[in-house]
């Protein structure tokens, strides 16, 4: 994949926003076991996600989250995922654990998301009509947006895709493509949508919450192949 890197200023910061001439980042979400986190990092994942939404089959308690974090080497971003949480719960997680980035997957208002004084990404529900750029405008303090296939009010992590043609190439912020990605489809998804990063959960699992090393390896390899011209 070749072409120029798009960048522009947002809130005084310059972001590199599209995957034209550098590698697409990979986040493996819904890690529930230290060995899965360690393996994801070994394979080259840039970030791992810990789900703090209690209704998810991938929800972790704080002790488990700590064990996963302890298994990670430096330079792997730890993302804490919440869906319409109580503010006190988010604060408790931030107090007890070394979290690098927050991910809000529900109907949280911009003021709520920025109230923790921590970098955050906001999920956009692509399971309903609408222009993703309206969400970008509504959350000026978000450092990125994760496009998932859920509808507003529904949970993410469903393993379903949405129409990648709806991913804007001129959003001006880092976009993270999610929803039903797998080793089979991620190469095509990256070529078409040209996201800053991809995020996967179901597509690299052997059972809910249990990551499969071979599927994770295949997924990361498919993403890097895009940039090697395969
Ligand atoms: O993973 C979950 O259980 C989850 C629960 C609530 C909100 C979001 C959740 N996961 C996020 O959804 C994307 C896509 O998942 P999938 O690959 O389609 O299974 C996942 O990467 C998480 O960011």
TrEMBL record:
The keyword Secreted does not apply. Its EC number is 5.3.1.24. GO terms for molecular function: phosphoribosylanthranilate isomerase activity. Signal peptide: none annotated. Keywords: Amino-acid biosynthesis, Aromatic amino acid biosynthesis, Isomerase, Tryptophan biosynthesis. Residues 26-221 form the N-(5'phosphoribosyl) anthranilate isomerase (PRAI) domain. The keyword Amino-acid biosynthesis applies. Pathway: Amino-acid biosynthesis; L-tryptophan biosynthesis; L-tryptophan from chorismate: step 3/5. GO terms for biological process: L-tryptophan biosynthetic process. It holds the Pfam family PRAI. It catalyses: N-(5-phospho-beta-D-ribosyl)anthranilate = 1-(2-carboxyphenylamino)-1-deoxy-D-ribulose 5-phosphate. Belongs to the TrpF family. NCBIfam families: PRK01222.1-4. This is N-(5'-phosphoribosyl)anthranilate isomerase. The gene is trpF.
């Amino acid at each position: 994949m070749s072409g120029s890197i798009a960048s522009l200023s947002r809130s005084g910061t310059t972001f590199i926003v599209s995957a034209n001439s550098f590698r697409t980042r990979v986040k493996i979400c819904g890690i529930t076991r230290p060995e899965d986190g360690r393996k994801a990092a070994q394979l080259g994942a840039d970030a791992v996600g810990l789900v703090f939404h209690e209704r998810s089959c991938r929800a972790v308690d704080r002790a488990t989250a700590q064990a996963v974090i302890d298994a990670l080497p430096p330079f792997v971003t730890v993302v804490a995922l919440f869906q319409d949480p109580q503010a006190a719960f988010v604060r408790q997680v931030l107090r007890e654990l070394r979290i690098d980035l927050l991910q809000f997957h529900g109907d949280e208002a911009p003021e709520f998301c920025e109230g923790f004084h921590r970098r955050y990404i906001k999920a956009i529900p692509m399971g309903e009509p609408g222009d993703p750029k309206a969400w970008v405008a509504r959350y000026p303090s978000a450092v990125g947006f994760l496009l998932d296939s859920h509808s507003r009010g529904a949970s993410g992590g469903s393993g379903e895709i949405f129409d990648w043609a709806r991913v804007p190439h001129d959003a001006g912020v880092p976009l993270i493509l999610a929803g039903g990605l797998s080793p089979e489809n991620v190469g095509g998804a990256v070529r078409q949508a040209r996201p800053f990063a991809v995020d996967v959960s179901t597509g690299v699992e052997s059972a809910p919450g249990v990551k499969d090393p071979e599927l994770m390896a295949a997924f990361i390899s498919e993403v890097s192949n895009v940039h090697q011209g395969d």
